Amino acid sequence: MQGSYSVIKVVPRSVEDVRFLQGLLQEHTFKGIDVWKPPSRVDSPVAVSVAPEILPVLRGLLTERGLEPKITIPDVQKEIDKQTIHRILQLTDGVTFDYSQYHKLDEINAWTKNITSVYSSLASMFQITTSYEGRPVYAIKISSTNSSASKPIFFFDGGIHAREWISPATMMYMTNQLLEQYGKDVQVTRMVNEFDWYIVPVFNVDGYDYTWTNDRMWRKTRTKHGICRGVDPNRNWDFEWCKQGASKDPCSDTYCGPSPFSEPVVKGVADFIKGLGSDVKAYIDFHSYSEVWMSPWGYTRDLPKDFDMQDKGSIQAVDALKSVYGTTYDHGSIANVLYTASGSSVDWTYGVLGIKYSYAVELRDKGEFGFLLPADQIIPTGQETFKALVALAEFVFNNP
Known about the structure:
- There is one protein chain.
- This protein is an alpha/beta fold.
- It has helices at residues 15-24, 55-65, 76-90, 105-118, 166-180, 186-194, 205-213, 264-275, 307-325, 334-337, 345-351, 378-398; strands spanning 6-10, 33-37, 46-50, 70-73, 123-130, 136-142, 153-158, 196-200, 224-225, 228-229, 280-288, 292-295, 330-333, 357-363.
- The protein has an 8-stranded mixed sheet, with helices on both faces. The chain has a 4-stranded antiparallel sheet with strand order 2-3-1-4, covered by helices on one side.
- Helix 5 packs across helix 12 and helix 9 runs antiparallel to helix 12 (378-398).
- The chain starts with 5 loop residues before the first strand and ends with a helix.
């Protein structure tokens, strides 16, 4: 599908520029455009993947407006090929799991089974729900025996948007670190002893599988609603559902669905988290890309009553993250640092369940590669994000 698509970036310099871009890029104005990062505010880069026949037209309209479009990825398909071809060359021996490469869903499921077997004294695997197409959604529980029966819970998931491959890759890396470093690293050991950890490596299993078999840039689930397939699983949660930052068009990448929790994977995970009760003290939904650590709200730019403490947690996380490779993350509420999005997981976990420390994290990078982050950045991303995760866990534990 992507062929010789290109990704272009443009930076709006005024409110009028933002409005112009929003009108220009609204759904169905152009066919052959995939919005990677939508126009939201002044000085925030906008990124779109553009079909070759549309590129000169779009560049002309932008230039006429006085904007300066820049091509950041000349050939999207070439970058996709780099990820998959390099991976095939690297995985010929099949001896050990390679955290430095992206993996298909069946390989991730096999890894889940294997790692919980290797670390059976700490970890267990279970099916959290079933997808629309009948695939199991697996989760991992990590719990040490050196603690009381009832502990606070830290829950995190990845891959809610199918094309964001760095997210499941980072989930796996961090899970391995929690297990491997237990009993070796003092801080990690303390955090595993103090929390029960629940991890969903791949949330949107149907969509993720589809990115490997059909369309690398697919974002949504694979349910059938009207003439188009898929719902944005991060617009489908039953809190401020389908308001600003979501679409009622079934063909849109931000389609909220015909009703809240219409998506089996969303309802299944939500029901499970709700069933854990008040023990859940922190929730993180890992995405890509933009390098931002965000707290509620997504549906409005107004700040919630707990924002100061939430943001202090974000600061602890991003400071720890920066200490590894110098990667600088922004932080703040979702609607203020990224864009408005209603019906999101984080707004639901905070607004409905009252999980104060609810976060959405956009991993590497800031847009050079976007959703096509090269595999050689998986390990560095995992290392710095794990440092942030442990720092945040310590903050949450000390500031209930």
